[in-house]
Amino acid sequence: MQHMQSAAHDSAPSYVRHERQPLATGTYHPLAKSNETLSPVDFRARRRAALYTHKNALCAAPSRKSIFTSAAPASSPHISTDVLTTTHTQGNAAPADSMSSSNEPAPQTHTPKTPATALATIGHGFVRAGQATAKAAKTTTRTIRTAATKVRAAWRTFTSFKAVQLIVKFFKSAHALWKKRMKFSYAFYTIVFFLLTSAEVIFLQWGMYSEPEYDKSTEIDETTKVLQSVAGQVTRFISQMWLEQKNVCLVSFAGLALIYLALILVTNRFWIATLVFGVALTAFGVANSIKVQLRNEPIIPADLTFISGGDTGSIMSFVPKSSQAFVNGTINFVIWFAIIAFTLFVLDGRRRFIHCSWRHPIANAKNIIGNIFRVLAAVLSVVLLSAYAMGLGTPGSNVYKWAKDNGYEPQLWNAIGDAQANNPATTFLSLSKVKAMDKPGNYSQKTMESLAKKYTQEAKTINQTRTGELTDNTVIMILSETFSDPTRVPGVSFSLDPIPNIRNIKNTTTSGLMLSPGYGGGTANIEYQALTGLNLANFNDSLIVPYQQLVPNQNDPYSFNQIWMKKYGKNASTAVHPFQQSMYLRNINYRKFSFSYLYTLDSKIPLKHTGCIDRSPYVSDSEAYQSILDLLDRQQDSKSSQFLQLVTMQNHMPYGDYYDNNELSDANISEDLSDGERWNINTYTKGINWTDQETADFLNQLDQMDKPITVIFYGDHLPGIYDTADMNKNNKTVLHETDYFIWSNSASSSHGTKVNPTTTAYTSSNYFMPLAAEHMNAKVSPYLAMLTELQQEVPAMSRVIGTNGGIGQGKATYLDHDGNDIKVTALSAKAKELLKDYKLVQYDQTVGKNYLKDLGFTQVP
């Protein structure tokens, strides 16, 4: 086995070239410099000539490791450290037998491995790995340094040019000036604050009005036209501060100012807060103006659930073409406003509205005081805004009294009137805190137990003559979007009957007119009354949309579909709505009502039938009816019945050029209508003409089934397109009347039944289920017994929105059997007692203790 002699050399320099040998681990030092130690890594780093022709002889320091070369072929120069161990006394001398001829392999002597040897081997591996890593790091470092040197040299060359030096000098001067830029004064902030807030108040109020239209035969002087124009009404709203000593404008300004101030103090950036405030309030004003135009009501806090529910795109689909230019112009304005605000933010040397330092909060007294004041200001601004908003909706509060002293006259029952009189911002803030009902003075568990016993006895009396059950029939409740006979509207006439089929159905079955609380909108309110039997007339004025303000917060609300679920299980009630599921939070509310599923366009299992008529953007009624037929087919072989809820969309506003071959356009013989009004009426009427045909086809298909089925069909409200009729305050009642009927197929025992037209001529949607029970001769629960008794005394009731002294005045509206308005004081003693009981029940089921739940009050025999 070959080995390399490691004995000491003479001190004389040697210039003999040695054959290159692999270096093993060890410590070496030149003989001439015995105090300098070198490692193999150091040798590798030297030049090759210095290593193999060195002026100083090398001498290995005493070590326990000998350096051997492997006897294996040259291609495998691996050196095993297991056989390199030698004693210190042997020094660097090689064994005698190792000097034998290389032609005869020397005998191998293997030293047994020990744990210490294994650990040493592992240690050597780690050392070699560390050495390799260190070498790579050094190589990388040298490469980076070389590259950096080249870059610095190139940069010096580039900056040495005179043109570059001039540019650098210019920017240095500009930067020095930039650092010295002026900080805008707080007085300037105050001016911007006042001007922007005032502008938003005026803009919001401007969106509440529309230009009046006058009959051609009416002569109107120019002064009247100016005063009644949008500009004239906005001017009057502002000038009443001086002319009538009514500072309603100041009340609105205070609300917006508190919002603006809270944004400033929370963000601590004046221009960022200005940007957010300006953009948000402008967008709010545009949306509010469009909603007033379409639905005759302003934006309320409950409407924000459309955005939080992801329905922003759906809301945009309701924007009429006539408002598209307005929206586009607003977008351009917002873009320029954002550019200006951002530019001022950049130019302003004052970065923080209130001095603070989060990096060095306790560095000095200025930082400590600034941080404390900054936090307190932000918190107090939010608290002040919240107190102001809650105070506006709380009669008797200090804020409410202050607002009243400045001319604030709340009309929370009439959101549109309130917004026009007090500004949309004030209306919005006043509705931010909602109290559904005031607690009746005699409300207690004992009172509710007594009431339950009372109507349990009434139910027994009614049920003595009833032979059927509600659950004997599959009940389909159909809310037909904006369905109402247009020929009943004063001033609207057609030479063709747009709804001949439904008119014939109404003549042969239980039917009449329904008092609707809405005009141009409010679908969810009518639907809520129909499903629960509760009525808006019993709620406080500030509760405008129960689906958005009440039901989502209830734990276990009652609805009539639960009658079928209690008998046939959780799958006995299903809902269909051919639109987005979160519209009016139906996905949440139907779950609260225990519907097994809500089929919509975007539900997990979406609707299959989504076709439209011609260019209409909404799913047709025939497709919606087909979805109901599919649900019926699933239960065709089952003996159980079910409750199905359908809310259609075909005739939803707005109305464009949707239908081909509209023969009703030529049949419209109405007079004194504007072109825009006539256009909307023609399109709408063709839509309900389609509904008339599709509903007749649907009922014919139901009539072929061998299962008993009863349909409750009703229109929710009139569309807000009858501008001419709406201007006459005497037409308020007729504009809140829609058509309804209750029909049963041939397989039902109530087929062909027509309840006394005298008692069904006028009703409200909260009475549909007791009327259906009477139509089907079905037994009733104590709750339905109470509603049955109440319907006989007060045939129709609701909270009808009216303006300018119109019907209801924002309070409960009651109609007699002939559709005449009844004053509360003129009601019979029995009717007054029933209304008191009704309010107790409604309070208990909504915000009370729900004592009736465990008393069998809603249990049907």
List low-pLDDT spans. 1-10, 46-61, 63-109, 802-809
Distance between the first and last residues' Cα: 109 Å
State the helical fraction. Answer: 40-55%
Number of strands: 13
Label the overall shape: globular
Question: How much of the residues is beta strand, in percent?
Answer: 5-15%
Can you walk through the features of this model?
With 861 residues, this protein is of the alpha/beta class. Helix 6 crosses helix 7 and helix 17 packs across helix 29. Mean pLDDT is 84; it is low at 1-10, 46-61, 63-109 and 802-809.
Q: How would you summarize the topology of this molecule?
A:
Elements: E1 28-30, H1 40-45, H2 48-52, E2 58-60, H3 115-159, H4 162-179, H5 186-206, H6 222-228, H7 230-243, H8 248-267, H9 270-295, H10 304-308, H11 312-316, H12 324-347, H13 365-392, H14 398-405, H15 415-422, H16 424-430, H17 445-463, E3 474-480, H18 500-508, E4 510-515, H19 523-532, H20 546-549, H21 562-568, E5 573-576, H22 586-592, E6 597-599, H23 621-634, E7 643-647, H24 663-667, H25 675-703, E8 709-715, H26 723-726, E9 737-744, H27 757-760, E10 762-764, H28 768-775, H29 782-793, E11 796-798, E12 813-815, E13 821-822, H30 829-846
Helix pairs in contact: 5-8, 5-9, 6-7, 8-9, 8-13, 8-16, 9-12, 13-14, 15-16, 17-29, 23-25, 29-30
